[in-house]
Design goal:
With 1457 residues, this protein is mainly beta. Helices cover 3% and strands 47% of the residues.
């Protein structure tokens, strides 16, 4: 009898143990025989002796055939009423055969799984799911699906073979089991032989999981499709479907099997594993229109799936029953698996030549989901730029806020025959289930045809149901060769007000709304690493899909690699940009290729996806082939993120950066332009190139062009305080003249934006301006656009009051003298302050004539950088990466003139990859530096105006000295710097000037050298950049020996501030009385300098006297100096002679100076020799004014206290303030600064004055400030009441010395007097009267120590100038008769007599470079005040040698206490 024939019922008796109720039947065949395929209708099981009604029916209605259905020849069946498709669990088994010789096997392989709930039987692996033909071949992966009952978590497995066949031995590499329904993936490594003749001879082995990975959890769906019974209803096209439920949507599911599906009148059943979408409210089904006879008449779709529910009948019973125990209630309320059935009736064609000609339809459940079909009118506007149109196929998906979407629809039927042409508006109609409010759309093309590149201006969608219009601006390319290379864009709707604004503005640049789009979208940088294996690269077209927990990106073709022209080559890393809107957290990716091209096979190592706006970087490991002839033959893979390789950081935000290139000759550049943003809290962004590739570099930054970029950078806070913009040079046209930069960013609530302008108007070119190719810019104004509730845009423009302060930093770098210490690398410093505030890289570029930091060289640099406040650290490094770039840094000096400090780091360290610790940059802590106070400087903007007369310009050396109310500067040279000081020019530059304001006068001197020594100076304007005070000095005369009537090369100009001249003109009459003693007269040339309230007179040569023979014994010589600026009250004079003539020795009795304007005569008593052979041998004397009698200070005085309250909210107080002065002579009493309700004090921004009588505490070092309630009562105000004080100024009224205390602090209100804040004195302005009374003659012992190195001594003439708070000593020669001074290792002592200099500030030591061995190594200088016994040490340790280091023969030394 022939069994299992068509339509027959075969009956068998099986003896077995008693099974009671049969719940499951496993039935199958061995696949042998000519026609082994079998369509099983059902199996009926009845225990012998039992009646017919006890029989259990197990329906199947499926093929058991390798070539039909799913190819399975073994099935497990469940009783009627249940679905085996839903009940059975699919175990996806990947068996990898090792890649070793002879690894393949022809034996039959079996597997047995051991789970927590149950075990499977030994199942033969007969039918591969990936159909490689010959199974278990070397290096291949075979995929099998085992459909069986749920065995729970897999603990182990048994795998082996029957050892039959010619090549029975098998090398098994690993087994991977994926169970989507459980959301788990098991890895079972093996890497051993299963062979009688290899290793231990075993042909089966038990394996245990090495790793259990969580993957996306899916559920089983049974899909039944009924094809209509009409003519030509069937289709050969590829059918797909997508489910939409209350909790999300499934992926796009392709419905395919080994059978010929979708035939007329047939019902096709599929098992699919998809995401649990909850209750299904719609289904989208369609086909791709491929194949012959693709039109399809779909009758209906039925979905079945299992859900956990508490049965309704149980609930009703509970109401009727009495109260049960809690245990019984729990049993009753336990959920059960219930089958859900959902039917969708279509009864329509999906064909291009039938019905509505659509290939895709959306269906709602037969029982209704409350949704209706809607029609959307889609207007696609192609841009009006050259080459904007496309011939490619365009696809569109529309998304609603409820989570629904239309799916991808091809835009075929337009109102124009030729679609998507330049400047054209194409209109399409899309029918879909109502999406509600639209939130985004996705539009792409397939890059087909020769003219695929497409510039899309915008998409407008009209919801015809409620006639709502949505605007989706794009204004970007969808092209592999343009923009960022993407051919798919996701767009979000914007308010109509923005669109109207664009249409009103004719000059609106491209991507003007790109920022709004960018803020709502997420930009992913996808990095794809191709493995380093033979033939691992691919020429196929690679695609990727990103899946988030909310949505997916759809297919993204990876066309334009940012790193390689030839993509996906062996060992290479390719980077791509992908943009998407709100897909949620990434959970997996699908990556694959289309298997086209000469060598399509591809070995993918890993994929890394970085989402800056989310602050997350995920890595998706692969390490497998995507190749039809390798591994499992798959050309696409699902990859999941490796948790341990996930990086998280602060999320980025989008900025719209608009760059305006100037309209001057040669302004454009082809260089790589980059930008860095800096915020107020010290946060700065990474350095970001504005162009994606060299092609963009060539197109952007042309003369008079406006280029706009949207970049994602770190969020630097609400305030952008500065930007750093520059380029990397290189190329033929790298020089760039930048006009300005505008940066736009969205307001926090997204309702508007803020545009900040950063003006530049300077060159970034090595051959122009100052040679810098990087600039730091500060903002000038802010333009804000706010979207109001009524839908209009409010526009506000405001200037930036206080842009971020940039200050100069001076650096001196000494390179070591060891072999190969030099470097030609580019060197930089980064100066760091508190709380991550730092300058960014300040490049220290050598002048053109110098090629490297040479061995033993000393290089000096001045750079502008961010004021970081209190300096904490300094980083020094270079950009060299080769061994030749090694650099030995001996010493580093940082000078901050605006802070008045100098830091010296003794480094002695290598910055080299192959030396020391291998670092090319090093961070130095400021605590390790030698810190010296050098005097606070103020930045001034100096404008020098040269007259507009013939030959007015000059190339002579110009020197300037400034005099102010609190001292004077040293003589400073005004650098010619190329084209300055030419006829009719106004030259403006920045100078660092000592803090002596307000300015009183200026002295200008030229040295009369050069080919054009004459100069017509019109005026000089000084602008104090800290307080914006402008001072003008006008001369309008020649400085020339020939053109000036007096032959003057020196001029003095009074300061004019607010049209007020700060000094008066006068005539000085100087009477010089020579003493009446033997040999008192002199024939030498005598010179004089007068010092007064307003500075000094400069050197006055005493030449033209009322006597023909000057300075004779007991003679009075009178000299007149008209048209001089009055110095006010005089305090001292300095007089000297040049020791020339027959009898140069001179005994001076006194000098009288009369100021005609003041009508005052000042006497300066001397009664001493100025002679080398008399007295102390000095030729120079300083004489104090006899008028300034030394006052005995009274014990009591008055103090004026001025308080300045901050101009901020909550700064003021209604309570009292008290202050105590801490002076050098003692502590004052408590001064109570009383407040009153009638005359309020300490209000916001107010300046209040108070006067108190007190004992004299001497120089005030600090003050104690407290805040207490009025009338001594207990404070009733809240505990956090403060007075915010900005500054306190205290003036001692007898000598009028002013003490400044920079507070800027909150003083808390306290009842107890012990709670106060202490502030140290920040600045002292000593009055002239105070200075004058301290001027008494003092002898200073000067000790000079010469170094002990070889050649340290000098034969040159040495000079010294000592500077103190009361002035300087003048330049004094250090000489001694008949002594060889300044020899190696020696110490030399000298005595200088001068008027009291006060606290010593610095020393200038120099030599004239005369003699044979002039080079000199100065170890240190020590100066002792013989009156007070105080010694001040000035370390040096440097050479004064033209041929060493920096080549200087002078040094300024600062004290170390």
């Amino acid at each position: 009898m022939n069994k299992f024939e068509k339509g027959s019922a075969d009956e068998f008796y099986i003896e077995a143990v008693t099974l009671k109720q049969v719940r499951r039947v496993r039935i199958g065949h061995d696949g042998k025989g000519g026609s082994s395929g079998w369509y099983l209708d059902k199996v009926i099981v009845r225990e012998e002796g039992q009646p017919e009604n006890q029989a259990v029916e197990f329906p199947c209605y499926r093929w058991l055939d390798k070539n039909e259905d799913d190819g399975q020849i073994v099935r497990e069946l469940v009783p009627a009423g249940d679905s085996p498709i839903l009940k059975n669990v699919s175990y996806h088994i990947s068996v990898k055969t090792g890649d070793v010789p002879g690894a393949s096997s022809d034996s039959k392989v079996f597997i047995k799984l051991y789970g927590e709930k149950a075990n499977t039987s030994k199942e033969p692996l007969l039918v591969s799911d990936n159909d490689l033909g010959n199974y278990f071949e070397r290096g291949r992966v075979d995929e099998f699906i085992l459909e069986t009952l749920d065995i729970g978590k897999i603990n182990r497995l048994l795998i082996g073979h029957d050892n039959v066949g010619l090549r029975s031995g098998w090398f098994l590499a690993s087994v991977q089991i994926t169970v989507p329904v459980h959301g788990r993936q098991y890895m079972f490594p093996c890497n051993r032989w299963l062979d009688k003749d290899e290793a231990d001879g075993k042909v089966e082995v038990e394996l245990y999981p090495s790793e259990i990975v969580s993957i996306e959890k899916l559920v089983n769906y049974e899909v039944s499709l009924v094809t209509g019974d009409v003519r030509a209803a069937g289709t050969n096209a590829n059918v797909f479907m997508q489910l939409y439920g209350e909790t999300g949507k499934s992926e796009l599911i392709t419905l395919k099997s080994r059978s010929n599906n979708f035939e007329r009148g047939a019902t096709d059943i599929f098992k699919i594993e998809a995401a649990d979408v909850g209750k299904i409210y719609k289904l989208r089904i369609g086909h791709d229109g491929k194949g012959i006879g693709d039109g399809w008449f779909l009758e209906s779709v039925t979905l079945k799936w299992m859900v956990m529910k508490v049965k309704e009948t149980d609930k009703k019973k509970k109401k009727k029953k009495k109260k049960k125990s809690s245990e019984e209630e729990e049993e009753d309320s336990q959920p059960e698996e219930v089958m859900e059935i959902c039917k969708f009736v279509a009864h329509r064609w999906l064909a291009t030549d039938e019905g509505d000609k659509e290939l895709v339809v959306e269906l709602i459940p037969e029982d209704g989901s409350g949704l209706e079909e809607n029609t959307y009118e889609v207007h696609v506007v192609t841009g009006n730029v050259w080459g904007a149109g496309t011939d490619a196929n365009v696809f569109l998906s529309i998304y609603g806020e409820g989570g629904g979407d239309t799916g991808e629809r091809q835009l075929k039927r337009s109102n124009h025959l030729n679609k998507f042409e330049k400047g054209q508006e194409d209109i399409f109609t899309i029918k879909a289930i109502d999406l509600g409010v639209l939130k985004k759309l996705r539009i792409r093309h397939d890059n087909s045809s020769g003219n695929a590149a497409w510039f899309l201006d915008r998409v407008e969608i009209v919801d015809l149901k409620d006639n709502t219009r949505y605007y989706f601006p794009c204004q970007r390319w969808l092209a592999g060769e343009e923009d960022d290379g993407q051919i798919a864009r996701e767009l979000v709707p914007v308010d109509e007000a923005f669109i109207k604004k664009d249409s009103d503005n004719d000059h609106q640049s491209l991507a003007s709304l790109g920022l709004e789009q960018k803020a709502k979208s997420t930009t992913y940088t996808v990095k794809v690493k191709t493995g380093d294996k033979k033939n691992s690269g691919t020429d196929a077209n690679v695609f990727i899909i990103l899946y988030g927990n909310k949505d997916d990106t759809g297919i993204i073709n990876l066309k334009a690699s940012k790193t390689n022209k030839n993509k996906f080559e062996r060992g290479k890393l390719d980077a791509f940009t992908v943009e998407s809107v709100d897909i949620g957290d990434l959970k997996k990716i699908k990556i694959g290729h289309d298997n086209k091209g000469g060598s399509a096979g591809w070995f993918l190592e890993w994929v890394e996806i970085d989402a800056p706006s989310l602050g997350q970087c995920l890595k998706f490991p692969c390490g497998r082939w995507l190749d039809k002839s390798e591994d499992d033959g798959a050309t696409e893979r699902d990859l999941f993120p490796a948790e341990l390789q996930t990086k998280e950081y602060v999320p980025f935000v989008p900025y719209e950066i608009t760059v305006y290139t100037s309209d001057i000759f040669g302004a454009g550049t082809d260089a790589d332009v980059f930008i860095v943003l800096y915020g107020s809290n010290g946060v700065c962004s990474q350095q970001k190139s504005l162009c994606q590739n060299k092609r963009e570099q060539r197109l952007c930054f042309e003369r008079n062009s406006v280029d706009q970029f949207i970049v994602e950078l770190e969020d630097v806070g609400d305030t952008i305080e500065k930007i750093r913009i520059g380029h990397r040079g290189g190329g033929l046209n790298s020089g760039w003249h930048l006009d300005r930069v505008e940066i736009r960013r969205l307001l926090p609530n997204g309702k508007g934006s803020e545009t900040i302008t950063f003006p530049c108007q300077r060159w970034l070119a090595k051959s122009e301006d100052d040679g810098e190719i990087v600039r730091e810019l500060v903002p000038s104004d802010i333009f804000t656009e706010k979207l109001l509730k009524d839908g209009t845009l409010k526009q506000i423009e405001q200037e930036v009051e206080e842009p971020l302060e940039m200050i100069p930093y001076h650096l001196i770098i000494t390179t070591g003298t060891e072999y190969d210490s030099s470097t030609d690398s580019r060197v930089y410093v980064i100066i760091m302050g508190p709380q991550k505030v730092q300058t960014g890289r300040l490049w220290l570029d050598l002048p053109k004539e110098k090629k490297e930091f040479a061995d033993g060289s000393v290089e000096k640099f001045s750079v502008m950088g961010l004021d970081v406040g209190e300096i904490k650290k300094l980083e020094l490094g270079h950009d060299g990466a080769t061994p030749e770039s090694s650099w030995l840094v001996e010493e580093l000096t940082l000078i901050v003139p605006t802070k008045g400090v100098m830091y010296t780091f003794v480094c002695k360290c290598w910055l080299a990859r192959d030396r020391g610790d291998g670092l090319t940059s090093r961070v130095f802590n400021i605590l390790d530096a030698d810190c010296v106070t050098i005097g606070h400087k103020i930045l001034y903007e100096v404008t020098v105006v040269t007259g507009d007369t013939q030959n007015a310009g000059t190339d002579t050396n110009i020197y300037m000295t400034l005099f102010g109310s609190s001292g004077n500067t040293e003589e400073m040279r005004l650098e010619k710097n190329g084209e300055r000081f030419e006829r009719g020019q106004e030259d403006t530059f920045i100078m660092e000037i000592a803090d002596i304001a307000p300015l009183r006068k200026m002295r200008i001197r030229t040295d009369g050298k050069g080919t054009r020594p004459d100069w017509f100076l019109e005026k000089i304007i000084m602008k104090n950049l800290s307080n914006q005070e402008v001072t003008t000095f006008t001369y309008s005369e020649w400085l020339s020996k020939l053109r000036n009537a007096k032959g003057a090369l020196v001029c003095e100009m009074p300061a004019v501030i607010n049209e007020e001249q700060m000094m008066e003109n006068t005539t000085y009459t100087v009477q010089v009385k020579t003493s009446d003693i033997g040999g008192a007269g002199t024939d030498a040339n005598v010179s004089l300098i007068m010092f007064g309230e307003n500075g000094d007179s400069g050197t006055l040569a005493l030449k033209e006297s009322n006597k023909s023979n000057k300075f004779e014994r007991n003679q009075m010589d009178v000299f007149n100096f008209p048209d001089m600026l009055s110095l006010g009250d005089l305090c001292k004079v300095r007089i000297w002679h040049d020791n020339k003539g027959v009898a140069p020795g001179w005994h001076l009795e006194y000098i009288d100076v009369k100021d005609a304007t003041l009508d005052k005569t000042f006497r300066f008593q001397c009664d001493r020799w100025l002679a080398k052979g008399e007295d102390d041998g000095q030729l120079i004397r300083e004489l104090a004014c006899a008028n300034n009698d030394i006052l005995e200070l009274k014990e009591r005085t008055s103090y004026e206290i001025v308080t300045v309250t901050s101009d901020t909210e909550d700064a003021e107080t209604k309570e009292n303030i008290w202050i105590i002065l801490e002076g050098k002579k003692g502590r004052s009493k408590e001064f109570l600064l009383e407040n009153s309700s009638k005359k309020r004090k300490f209000t916001r921004g107010a300046t209040d004055k108070f006067l108190f009588s007190s004992k004299n505490v001497g120089d005030i070092a600090a003050i104690c400030v407290g805040h207490c309630p009025k009338d001594g009562r207990k404070s009733t105000t809240k505990a956090d009441a403060y007075w915010h004080v900005r500054e306190i100024i205290i003036t001692e009224m007898e000598l009028c010395n002013k003490y400044f205390f920079k507070c800027n602090a909150k003083i808390p209100l306290r009842n107890k007097r012990g709670d106060y804040k202490v502030f140290e004195c920040a600045k002292v302005i000593e009055s002239f009267a105070s200075k004058a009374r301290s001027l008494v003659p003092v002898k200073y012992e000067v000790i000079v120590v010469t170094g002990s190195e070889k050649g340290a001594g000098t034969d040159a003439n040495v000079f010294i100038t000592v500077f103190g708070i009361n002035g300087d000593s003048g330049k004094r020669a250090l000489k001694q008769k008949f002594r060889n001074l300044f020899e190696r290792g020696k110490t030399n002592r000298f005595c200088l007599e001068t008027l009291e200099l006060g606290e010593l500030k610095k020393v200038r030591i120099e030599h004239d470079n005369s003699g044979i061995a002039t080079g000199w190594l100065v170890e240190r200088v020590e100066i002792t005040n013989s009156a007070t016994g105080v010694t001040t040490i000035f370390p040096c340790g440097k050479w004064l040698d033209q041929n060493r280091g920096d080549g200087l023969t002078w040094r300024e030394l600062f004290p170390r206490y």
